[in-house]
Design a protein that fits this description.
The structure is a homodimer of 391-residue chains. Chain A is α/β, with parallel strands linked by helices and 391 residues long. Chain A contains 13 helices and 12 strands. The relative contact order of chain A is 0.13. At the A-B interface, α4, α5, β2, α6 and α10 of A face α4, α5, β2, α6 and α10 of B. β2 of chain A pairs antiparallel with β2 of chain B, so a sheet runs across the interface. The structure holds a DNA duplex (16 and 16 nucleotides).
Chain lengths: 391, 391
DNA sequence: TTGAAAGCGCTAACAC
DNA sequence: GTGTTAGCGCTTTCAA
């Protein structure tokens, strides 16, 4: 049992009343400078901390932010939420909040947990992840005017979808990836993504398509939509490369898809004797120093040089339509999320600024909790490209 | 604002006094069956939930369990804590507890956080991860008789290290991996691990060494100790395979090391035209159904057949001492932690039962919190082998 | 500026 | 078996 230090102990030791101690902490401007300093010193000396439960009873604020934790370990991208969670815990602590965890299988059970939590621990706010079309959670929270922020845009224009959110601009990420490949001389750049309908997936595809269009390059037939996964990524890559489009580079919606694509690229390279961006297995990996994009200033996408002066590129590849063309140049691959897998296999990948996203969530929340009428605010963050051997 | 339902509302609606409602929830045996049922029904109808802060003020229990969240995303094994955390949240919820997160850079700052938390949110217990030699945290908590459980053994015999813990038997994991390789016919099985001194690493090495000894096989010179990492794993594997020990299989202390080793194995295979357990890049991956070890009964290690009847093995490899021997058979590799990376590249790996470990932590904690004198208890769980292409 | 009083919602004592 | 009383530690009136 840790000996408890109450506000009364501090008051006695400082020779003031309880309220003066309370004021020192909650309304410093009301206390004389000298008194304030003295009280603070005593607080420090006794190691006093305001009891949260008592404070909560009086103020109605728990200084708790609740968030769901997903199974995570299941997929390659599992580490994304993990990293976000770490950042959230850190940012929240800085703002005087703690993170409370809960689990839920689906929207309905998550709402049931909201009710449970609101009645018991009374979290001041929620952070929602994995937002989707017709998200029941956002409308439920909105109806009750409960403070929350979503990490992820509302993928719907319904009135029940007007709320604060923080997101990473996926389209900007795939656009940067595409620009990087263009600058490297590639002209036939394919895309491996998910079936239409998922906001996130559509967004990532759009960035690629938009960038090709901006450069007057056609995108028809250069894209595949499949379920996420290494194997489906490999299948899609094989299909796309065999389709006669003479694709020399692939932008992928996930590291899982990209890993599958990379396997295919390696197979082609070893069949034809060409090296891909990936070294022969067994060669030492590059130093980590070269793995990260230098970040100078607000522009987070790497400087790849003027796009009007592409490096020597693969545009002269002699394709054999309808079949994997032997003799082609290496196929470049870029993934999304910059997961540990990407780092492990040397996959260039779009990195989400997860720490910043978490900090933005906390900033939006504290602002909303401070003011009376929670304003609806949005933060869209730019991802960056982590350059590795694969592209 | 959610309308608040207090115990008084329930009492009024049920036509009883406050205390009868409280008793119904906290001391059901004291209330008449009929009254109890009626009160419960009203509680249900009104959606009443006992306010945690008020309850905490009275009882001194927060029903909160605190745990540190690590950066995680940094390493390949980052997903391990994530999965454990999910299990912990789930198990804790079942027992009526919630998980509170905090971050800390080292032992000292973690202890500072203990003090902060204990003074404010008053968590009922802590779960410690990543225990190590001379762990300041455990002695600090022990001195103050604060309830906690460590996920990980105390790697020290000091008196300050006598506490409840839950751990996974790493030695049993590497032993199972080694037995699996022996059953597959391998006789020269190497080990890639970390420098001595880390309890976890020593433990994993011991399982391998012990198993070789049990089979009358020598272990001398068949092991390497390096920092964790893909590249260092590759280097160590190259070194070990070139050392003339005619090693045909490698057990590794982590998936990172194993991934490096796998790259080297692949290089050897493609140099010599042999296939490793890993397919040529581009070939479809096996179905997930075949990826998981069938689990029948308490024995979690896979049935690999009687070890006295090994399959055709690589024991006749014609080694060229001092250099990588061309013409050798495939080199099998087994990792540790069964991370997403292992799944992605088809690496056989030792899987920790993280959900069970989390459940055990909660069980130990609730037991300790229930009884007056927290008994020191230990739970050592058996890992299993997730079979994939690499071995 | 500082001190006194009230009460947030709950449960552990005790009296009925 | 049920009701009354008290108080956990804090902040927010209000009075000095």
């Amino acid at each position: 049992m840790a000996e408890k230090v109450t506000i009364m102990d501090v008051a006695r030791a400082a020779g003031v009343s309880r309220q003066t101690v309370s004021n020192t902490l909650n309304s410093p401007q009301v206390v004389r400078e000298e008194t304030r300093r003295h009280v603070l010193e005593v607080i420090q000396r006794l190691g006093y901390r305001a009891n949260q439960a008592a404070r909560q009873m009086r103020t109605g604020r728990s200084r708790l932010i609740a968030i769901r934790i997903d199974p995570g370990g299941d997929g390659i991208s599992g580490s994304v939420l993990d990293t976000f969670l770490h950042g959230l815990t850190e940012s929240a602590a800085r703002a005087g909040y703690r993170i409370l965890l809960y689990t839920a299988a689906d929207d309905r059970s998550e709402i049931a947990t909201f009710e449970d939590l609101l009645g018991s621990y009374e979290p001041d706010a929620f952070v929602l992840t994995a937002t989707h079309h017709d998200d029941l959670r956002t409308s439920w929270l909105l109806e009750r005017r409960l403070p929350f922020v979503a990490f992820g845009r509302p993928w719907s224009d319904l009135p029940g979808a007007r709320h604060s959110w923080v997101d990473v601009d996926g389209a900007a990420g795939t656009a940067a990836a595409t620009r990087h490949l263009l600058a490297a001389g590639h002209r036939r750049i394919g895309f491996l993504g998910w079936p239409p309908g998922s906001g996130v997936g559509d967004d990532r595809r759009a960035g690629w398509a938009r960038t090709l269009a901006e450069h007057g390059l056609p995108a028809d037939g250069l894209s595949r939509a499949v379920e996420d996964g290494v194997e489906s990524g490999a299948r899609a890559a094989r299909d796309l490369l065999a389709a006669g489009g003479e694709v020399t580079a692939l932008v992928c919606a996930s590291d899982s898809l990209a890993l599958g694509a990379l396997n295919v690229a390696d197979a082609l390279a070893s069949e034809t004797g060409h090296l891909t961006g990936r070294p022969a297995p067994g060669t030492p990996l590059p130093t980590t120093a070269s793995e990260t994009t230098p970040q100078t200033g607000p522009e987070t996408t790497p400087q790849t040089g003027p796009e009007t002066t592409p490096q020597t590129g693969p545009e002269t590849a002699s394709g054999m339509p309808g079949a994997v063309s032997p003799g082609r140049r290496p196929v470049a691959v870029i993934g999304f999320d910059d997961t540990p897998v990407a780092r492990a296999v040397g996959l260039t990948s779009v990195r989400q600024p997860l720490g910043e996203a978490a900090a933005a969530c906390v900033a939006l929340l504290t602002r909303a909790l401070g003011s009376a009428g929670p304003p609806v605010e949005h933060v869209l963050l730019e991802p960056s490209l982590t350059l590795r051997r694969s592209a």
